[in-house]
Structures are given as C-alpha cells and as structure tokens.
C-alpha cells in the first residue's frame, strides 16, 4: 500500500512540472532547431579528397533545388559547401566539394537561400 502511494505522489510531481505539451520544468523554453530554411538531409559516409567528392547517406527523400538551395556539411569546427550531382545509388547521393573541409560523419544540411527580388525604386 505504501509503495502504491509513493508511486502516485511521484507521478503527480512529474506531471505537475509540465505546463504545456513538450515543455517540462515550468516555462523554461526547450531549445529546438526548427527553422523552415534549414533541414537535416543526411550524413557524410565517404570522402574522396583526390577526386573532390563525398558520398552522403541520405535521410528520407532527397529534395534539392539547385536555384535556391545550398547543401552544407557541418562538423565540430568545420563547414563545407557541397554541390549534389545527379548520381544516386539506393540511399546514397554523391556531391562535389565546392569549398571547405569535410570528414566522415559530418551532418549534411540543405539550406534555403532567401531570394531578393529586384524592385525599382521610384524617385
């Protein structure tokens, strides 16, 4: 009986700390990376430095628009700009290394570029 009461008190204490779904410990916000212009696309699985390309293990469907999106690889202290090619095999996508340093295991993000429309100013 005592174990049952202790269990109920502990559960009530845990649920009392939740003030909204997904937000525990009062009103302290949870840090999330939910930007519409940045999405995780995969991980670098192989790097060919001599040839200047990487093999990316993609996560889910690979959607990339060459006109308004950039593919980036982020490591601990490294960033690389990648250009995906038309080549893909199963769950892998090939990409050329444009600039930067990339290593196996780096996260690959697809970043949407904000396009600026050319507007004519009237005098």
Count of individual helical segments? 1
Distance between the termini: 83 Å
Stretches with pLDDT under 50, minimum 5 residues? 17-34
- How would you characterize the largest beta sheet? 6 strands, antiparallel, barrel
Strand coverage percent:
35-45%
CATH-defined architecture of the largest domain? Beta Barrel
Structural class of the secondary structure composition? mainly beta
Strand order of the largest sheet: 1-2-5-4-3-6
Explain how this protein is built.
The termini are far apart. Strands 1-2-5-4-3-6 form a 6-stranded antiparallel barrel. The protein has 2 domains: 1-31; 38-112, Thrombin, subunit H (Beta Barrel). It is elongated, with a radius of gyration of 23 Å. The longest helix has 15 residues, at 2-16. A hairpin with a 2-residue loop joins strand 4 (79-89) and strand 5. 12% of the residues lie in helices and 40% in strands. With 123 residues, the chain is mainly beta.
Can you summarize this structure?
The chain folds into 2 domains: 31 residues; 75 residues, Beta Barrel (Thrombin, subunit H). The chain has 1 helix and 6 strands; from the N terminus they run αββββββ.
Topology of helices and strands:
Blueprint: H1 2-16, E1 38-48, E2 53-58, E3 69-74, E4 79-89, E5 92-100, E6 107-112
Antiparallel strand pairs: 1-2, 1-6, 2-5, 3-4, 3-6, 4-5
């Amino acid at each position: 009986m005592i174990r049952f009461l202790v269990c109920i008190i502990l559960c009530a204490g845990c649920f009392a700390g939740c003030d909204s779904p997904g937000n525990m410990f009062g009103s302290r916000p949870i840090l999330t990376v939910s930007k519409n212009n940045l999405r995780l696309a995969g991980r670098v699985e192989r790097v060919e430095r001599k040839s200047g390309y990487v093999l990316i293990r993609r996560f889910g469907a690979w959607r990339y628009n060459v006109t308004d999106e950039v593919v980036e690889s982020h490591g601990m202290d490294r960033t690389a700009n990648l250009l995906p090619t038309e080549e893909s095999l199963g769950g892998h996508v090939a990409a050329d290394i444009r600039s930067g340093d990339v290593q196996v295991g780096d996260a690959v993000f697809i970043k949407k570029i904000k396009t600026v429309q050319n507007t004519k100013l009237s005098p």
